[in-house]
Amino acid sequence: MRCKITIQKTTSNPIHYDYQYGLASMLYKRLAKANINLANETHSHQGFKFYTFSNLVIEDWIPDKRGLNFSKAHFFISSPDSGFIKSFAEGLFLEPEFFLGRGDNKANFIIERMEILSNPTFGDDCTFKTLSPVYVKTQRKKGDKLVEVDLYPKDSKFYENLHKNITARYKEYYGKEIEYDNFEVLEVTDVKPKRISIGNSYRRCNHLNLTLQANPDLIAFAYDAGLGEKNAMGFGCVDLIELH
Predict the structure, then answer these.
(1) DSSP state of 144
(2) CA spacing 20 to 30 A to 150: which of 76, 96, 194, 205?
(3) Where in the sequence of the chain do the CATH 3.30.70.1900 domains occur?
(4) What is the pLDDT of residues 90-144, one digit of tens each?
(5) What are phi and psi of 153, to 5 degrees?
(6) In CATH, what number does 2-117 get?
């Protein structure tokens, strides 16, 4: 299930370009407002988290050298768990005012509208575009230590780990293996590398378009739960742009 959330900025200040962490924190607080037990369960869960959200889609850019400035935008939040999305929506409805950023890059917002969207019909061959960048990592040996390495689409391990991640999350969510586990990325275009601050660290990730051939159930799960890692921090939200 996917919800479109339209927001209005009520102050003139810009926000910092790295706003994902602040948006993730706000969403968690609104979930706790509506359903504290679900919020605590989500926060303490050591496995995967089954929701994702998009970057802000700016509707009226305002040129500003101090940061990202606009008056109106929207974003999407999605999950295979409809009850989870409804709890988010309820929390946002109960407390529609929020802020993003700090200091000179702090701005106030209000939720203007929320709309539950119908999911597309998926086949086994679809082209997606990212609404928030995809993050994939691996571990590689450096000297006598294993170090964490962020992956780019030029690395074949990117696709291997993308596949492993989505099937592992599907299994944890549904409690069973996906049937007919075919997963092949046929084409990747419009790759735009990003470096995003999350808490006290940076993640190297990618906006891109990708044509994916897979079990339609796995494709639908990727649409709802996101592709790649750190989905609950605003990575891997995708939109269907073509059904082949």
Answers:
(1) T
(2) 76
(3) 125-243
(4) 888 889 999 998 888 899 999 999 999 998 999 889 999 999 999 999 998 887 8
(5) -60, -20
(6) 3.30.70.1890
Global pTM exceeds 0.90:
yes
Residues whose CB is less than 8 angstroms from the CB of residue 116 and which lie 6 or more positions away in sequence, other chains included: 1, 2, 3, 85, 89
| Catalytic residue check, 159 | no
For CATH 3.30.70.1890, list the domain ranges present in the chain.
2-117
Q: What is the dihedral of CA 225, 182, 162, 55, to 10 degrees?
A: -40
DSSP 93: H
Options 16, 17, 19, 28, the catalytic residue: 28
For 125-243, the fitting CATH number among 3.30.70.1900, 3.40.50.150, 3.40.50.20, 2.40.160.20 is 3.30.70.1900
User: Which of 17, 43, 180, 202 is flagged as catalytic?
Assistant: 43
The question of whether 74 is a catalytic residue gets the answer no
- Exposure string over 10-38, b if 16+ CB within 10 A, otherwise e: eeebbbbebbbbbbbebbbebbbbbbeeb
